[in-house]
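Review session, final week

We close the course with one last complete record, chosen because it touches almost every idea we covered. It is Cupin type-2 domain-containing protein, a protein from Blastopirellula marina DSM 3645 with 122 residues. Go through it on your own first, then we will talk.
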Amino acid sequence: MPPAKINLAEKLNQFTEHWSPKIIAPYEDYQFKLAKLKGEFVWHSHPESDEAFLVLDGVLRLDFRDGSVSVGQGEMLVVPKGVEHKPSAEFPCQVMVLVRAGTVNTGNAPVSELTSDPTASI
């Protein structure tokens, strides 16, 4: 039996909270996650994993200590492991994230109200 396809729009309609990535599929030691973003996140890094952002809708701004990059719909950016960054979205934004399984969204930053369950799925 062939694998089932995943409808991203249907998955995105299953949740409303911001900054709370949801697993939609495993990929070897990684996970594809969907997230809705709005406002500012926290400065953090992921010492054990690269983090790839594919913008599905809206504009994601990624601040780095030495500059920033705006990533628009249909564009992608990979943050190398260990690189400190701070995502933000002035207006609602939808992204797909690829990260090593078990990676916490706030990385090495202190646990806060923005820290989500790294095992949450839809």
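Two points worth writing down before the exam:
The chain has one domain: 8-100.
The radius of gyration is 14 Å.
Good luck, everyone.
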